[in-house]
């Protein structure tokens, strides 16, 4: 579907959508939804690795959106985003919105050990200092990260896209499972929309890669279960949870996880797991390695959701009504 975003009297300058290198395909899908061409910008590297950005069209007075999930390689993605925002600000864009469907470093959001950085806040400071006026993001690891910005943040959820797909599976005796106690609120919201029951896993993280599942609260025996989460990184949480749920008598185990970070050894783990299907969004491009593994991964696009949010921000319409 494509809606041709309109520009008229009383509105801001024309809307423009630019992208860095981290997820060009998603940018193209959003541009197609909005019915606008992608902005012309060069985002290249000097031989030693420094990033060079040149905006190759006039953006004076424009309402500019820059799509750049800060995914792998996260440091390059962040730096590209910062330099693009700086270049657009110096080129006199009227307003700049950083569209960051996946916000990297989000898991470093508190000082939970002595002498560590709150890197999620540092990245927020950098985006603001570069000159962003607003942020549009999706399924932040913790809702409170919105408060790390002193500029407006629109926070979307991929859940409506997942819910439509899960409905199409026609799963009977459905239970939505939160893989940790922190995710219960989001899991409950999905369960309510699907008229499903709710369960939650009590897990313990032994290291960055290793997880131990302690218990499951709620009934999963004889049920089809869907684990919902924000990030699948090494897939330790996901595959341990699936094993545990199967051991407890679950009929099938699906997972709906917004951001497919899929760091090594995620694909090996998923291949060996008892997971029926992993459902993810295209907030992050799918890892190329995926074709070397026998894994059932379904990618659902969030381009229309992001495109519609951009249209509403441009027209000063409510974004929160997108969740209903
Ligand atoms: C944790 O709180 C997150 O919601 C994810 O469950 C976690 O980041 C996934 O990491 P991994 O896939 O490495 O277990």
Explain what the structure shows.
By secondary structure, the chain is an alpha/beta fold. The protein contains eight helices and 14 strands. The strands form three sheets. It has a seven-stranded mixed sheet with strand order 10-9-8-11-12-13-14, with helices on both faces. It has a five-stranded parallel sheet with strand order 1-4-5-6-7, sandwiched between helices. α1 (24-34) crosses α8 (303-314) and α2 (74-90) runs parallel beside α3 (119-130). The two termini are 20 Å apart. The relative contact order is 0.13. The model has no long low-confidence stretch (mean pLDDT 95). The structure holds ribose-5-phosphate.
Distance from first to last alpha carbon: 20 Å
Q: What value does the Rg take, in angstroms?
A: 20 Å
Q: Which molecules other than protein and nucleic acid are bound?
A: ribose-5-phosphate
Largest sheet at a glance? 7 strands, mixed
Mean of residue pLDDT? 95
Beta-strand proportion: 25-35%
Uncertain runs: none
Computed structural class: alpha/beta
Overall strand count: 14
Helix content: 25-40%
Physical arrangement of strands within the biggest beta sheet:
10-9-8-11-12-13-14
Count of DSSP helices?
A: 8
